[in-house]
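__Record contents__

***
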Amino acid sequence: MSEPENYRAAIVGLGQVGLLFDSDARRSGVWTHFTAYERMASLFDLVSACDPDKSRQALAKQRRTTLNCYDSLEELLNGREIDIVSLCTPPQLHAEQIAQCAGRVKAVICEKPLSADSQSARPALEACRKAGTLLVVNYYKRFDELVPSVKELLTDGRIGRVKLVNAIFCGPLDAVGSHMVDLLRFFFGELQVEGRVSSAAERYSIRLRTEGDTLVHLHNIGPREEFVFEMDAIGDEGRIRLLNNCRDCEFLRYQESDRYSGYRELYPATFELSEKMERFLPLFLETAEVLRGKRRTLTSDGENALRTQLLIDSIADHLAR
């Protein structure tokens, strides 16, 4: 039986993650939905885009001359037939735009976070559920660099029962912070805010706890431009440090100390790396496979993103007190 034709895709919002990150000569790999569709041309045909900024439309058409460009989402949906919409717009627009697309396309790939808050996100999810539209949310950190390898180490119990986690990020909670919150859920399961906040100037720390009673300390160190994104997890059998925006990892295991009788100390250990893929591509591939009936679930769907949003809302509420 032959494979169906490629899915016709459209990008809504030709800003940074839609298109413009590709203009940064220091970035390598896949950083935009535009490039993701180009790299996955065997599955998707990028046929349309919309943005009220005519200069961005022109830039997109320079790169893909056959692209149909529109000023608004409604014009795009009423234009050339499409199967998949990528929403690369500000978070406060996501919920309304998801609902607008529900039932008119087969799938929506929405940039994180799902919405400005969980209250507005719920009707959008319900609209997709009722219409049978697949909702995908691009929490790409779940696939980024050494994250899959760290996930395997944690799932296999290589550091034993995780007792304490320190997670450090920079910038707004609904931007870089949302990636860290989602990654903590990906690694350790559901979390609740303990309600203990320390803050100074642009910095803050807040304590969370997993259902398995792991203590998690979430630290924001200030402006996004002073970039830090790392995690340190300590268990009763070892330790994992995910460093340098997920590019590096330290894995240590407890062994009998060669310095002190009756003590165990942490020593470097080896681990096998999982196969790496470009950060956006796995979720785009999953989208096509679900639509084709080759898989049943997504690594980051709308329900997952809602649970992440609920935790973000809870953190923001505690910070505002």
Q: What stands out?
A: The first strand starts at residue 7 and ends at 12. The radius of gyration is 21 Å. The longest helix spans residues 302-320. The chain has a mean pLDDT of 96.
